[in-house]
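Deviations from the work plan: none for this task. Representative record:
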Amino acid sequence: MSANEKAVVPPASDTVTIEVDGRKLQAKKGSMVIQATDAAGIYIPRFCYHAKLPIAANCRMCLVEVEKAPKPMPACATPVAEGMKVFTRSEKARESQKAVMEFLLLNHPLDCPICDQGGECPLQDQALGYGKDDSRYDEAKRVVPDKDIGPLIATFMTRCIHCTRCVRFGQELAGVMEFGALGRGEHTEIRTFLDRSVNSEISGNVIDICPVGALTSKPFQYKARPWELDHHASIAPHDCVGSNIDVQTLRGKVMRVLPRVNESINECWLSDRDRFSYEALNSEERLRVPMIRRNGQWEEVDWRTALDFTVQGLRNVVERHGPDALGALASPIATLEEFYLLAKLVRALGSNNVDHRLRQLDFSDDDRAPLYPALGLTIPELETLDAVLLIGANPRKDQPLLGLRLRKAARRGAAVMAINPLDYDFTHRLAAQVIGKPEEMYAAAAEVVKALGQMGHTAVGEASWIDALSPRPEAERIAQALMQANKKAVLLGPFALGHPQAAGLRAAAQRIAARANATLGVLAEGNSAGAWVAGCVPHRGPLGQPADRGRDTVAMLNEPRKAYLLYGVDPELDVLDGALAAKAMEAAEFVVMASSFKPSVYRSGAIGYAHVLLPLAPFAETAGSFVNTEGRVQRFEAAVKLYGEARPGWKILRVLGDLLGAAGFQYGSLDEVRAELGVPSLFKPTALEAGGAAAPLHTPLADGQLYRIAEVPLYAVDPLVRRAPALQDTADNPRPAARMNASDIKRLNLEPGAAVVVRTVMGEARLQVQTDARVPEGCVLIAAGYPETAMLGAHGPASVVRT
Amino acid sequence: MATNPKPKTAERLSAAARGEIDRWTAKFPPERRRAALLAALTIVQRENGGWLTPELMEAVADYLDVPPVAVEEVATFYSLYDLAPVGRHKLYVCNSISCWLCGSERLLRHLEQRLGIKAGETTPDGRFTLKQVECLAACGGAPAMMVGGEYHENLTPEKVDTLLARLK
Ligand code: SF4
Ligand code: FES
Ligand code: FES
């Protein structure tokens, strides 16, 4: 549009014209002056105002002069009006800003030199830009004791200026009000109830929004000054969101991770997992040099020796037992390029036994699977949904920033519904919910299919068992809410993917979506989407090309292979059935582990069963791409140099391929790998093909047995977060326990805290009993992903007996 | 929190207190139970001998479906709530402007001397708690003091002495 054309377009009726410092601006009716000036790039100082938070107007830093107004007005709480004249730098405005600044600094300590916020402190900056150079206040300043509010956030409450951003963040965004402004006037203090810890899964964001050094990062405390840090744009690996991060480093070490603003992905937020997992990069458990085990002895060796040893071992097995004797398991947080090269390598050896779906149990619908597990919507579109059915999904903890979007939808009035194994604590109301063990979840989903069928749609070709169901009222409610809504989605979460009858559950979800005309979305782990498109699945090559069917994770472990190639995997903890994985590894002749960490005896038996350890560069030390749940490909470069002799995975795989004599491994750069695979900027989602829903399997329980639900909590999901100390110390990461509801505890004649031994067909674990009201009747929730519980295997019957 | 769901604490409230709170919540739409917060705290405080424990605040929070810290905000904001044990009689001396202009400071000093305690403290015999409070909305009768829900206005040290003698 040329400037000329622009001039003739009359201002839309929902805008008004205001004048700021002599400049004419268009502003949306009902918006505040500060919003108009921000949009126009005119800066007005502020502390309490934050574009993503409700307006509080309590700091008064944004005072401006408005023509005809008798007093200076707060720009953040003054709505624009036609013809309004605003002066942001007039004598009167400046005087008011100076006066407010003088008040704000009355009690503020002069400890900037030792304050972690120093150098990136809005109070410091604005005091310089808008304040006076001295203060008339010479009385004693007030002192507020600091509080211990958990392992992530350090507090220096004397510095607080009571802007209440942290309070509003909890109330409005996180959905749990943890901070409050206690007391009044001179005695106001920002505190939590009884000084309890702050437990939100996105709590770290208050560190960013606190405009002073009152709330700062505990793991980063006194580690560096902000101006010393180098910035590296990167992508967070821990969930399917692909949050944009700024990895900040000092002398080759990652010091902290902050969000990079990307409105269409993470806005300006970050989950605590993405923010604090970097601690694992500097962990003492990092594997520094290649190691091999010869004649029962571990020795540190150079890369050449390690790779020759690896090649020899793999060759031996393939020559003696054939290529099917080899299996490769990759962590879902590997990069797209790594997945591609790993699958290529395994296939070059003649095997199709490669998988990254370590927590999946049922693979029977692999042939109908879409190109990759996709949300089917953009992330911001989640906010616009009118109805959402979550199946085996707890986005608040599993993909915290998607949980945030769904909360916004719910607050707009969307009917959020769930079919879940546990009565999760949502930060919004649920319109309907069914809680039950996996077979119960499946039945409930099928009942929704039936209920939708009854609502005027003919029950065409349903499996007879579905036709025979009589939907419970909650299932009908779900069906109704879906039918009535305009924009809707059915979302399968990680628990649904790891369901014993995942294929059936998926088929049911597909039918629900088809009948209700809803989008079917999948929230898979980490970079699972990248693994799918790269061909790191046993039945498909790159970009979904058909491949001879190899063995999936469970098939590789059920009939143990002779050799395993483990790529960034702690088998006992990353495979849902850790006991099965351990057994298979122990039975193998040759186990290669590419890993960023040394195997600790506490976490795994790898010292006993592995033969080679290849130090693998984690995400901050390598370049690569992650594909998020929208199909968006996001590339990143290494942020820091490699630790010890660790090498980027793509280089390890390239050399291995070469040494094994496989063709086509002579890549000069990562770009060549990408070019070969053919990576667009966005992978278009494809649909899951409709297919049969197998009859539900009933797991019989013997007398006194419970059904063990194996859920992987948010800070146990991958090798990095498991080694991030601050995250491990949070309330969201309690020690694994045998969690039951109060009536089951009573029925079993136990009490909270009782020491019990839990036995399953796979093995046993010694745990404590804990009351957990979220657990359905007849079930015991025992977290997976922990060494203490790995030997129990996956879901299934378990006995809980007092020791 | 997900892994340790918050316990149900509303049972800590007596049936009588809950019944009385219900009369207040009935006046508001069901999703606005928190509107009864001031009343609920007053009821619970009265029943607990004049002060609120953290456990009771938490119970009120649970009962009204409000975050506990929001209850604590209210309980710490208003001077009519007490968060520590109090004496049999609470002497609330207004410290706001009208009363101040009419000599509330003198009144307070007098009380402190007579009772041998500072504002905010309780006499060792558990008889009186002395407290400064914000405007009692009795400015016309300044200086004013509230004792056990009753107003005493246009006070002088002498009038205060007579009053103290009546309070056993
Ligand atoms: S702690 Fe920080 S964010 Fe919270 S009120 Fe104080 S200054 Fe504002
Ligand atoms: S920014 Fe406007 S009052 Fe705080
Ligand atoms: S100032 Fe004391 S009652 Fe108003």
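Strands of chain B lie at 89-94, 128-133, 145-147, 150-152.
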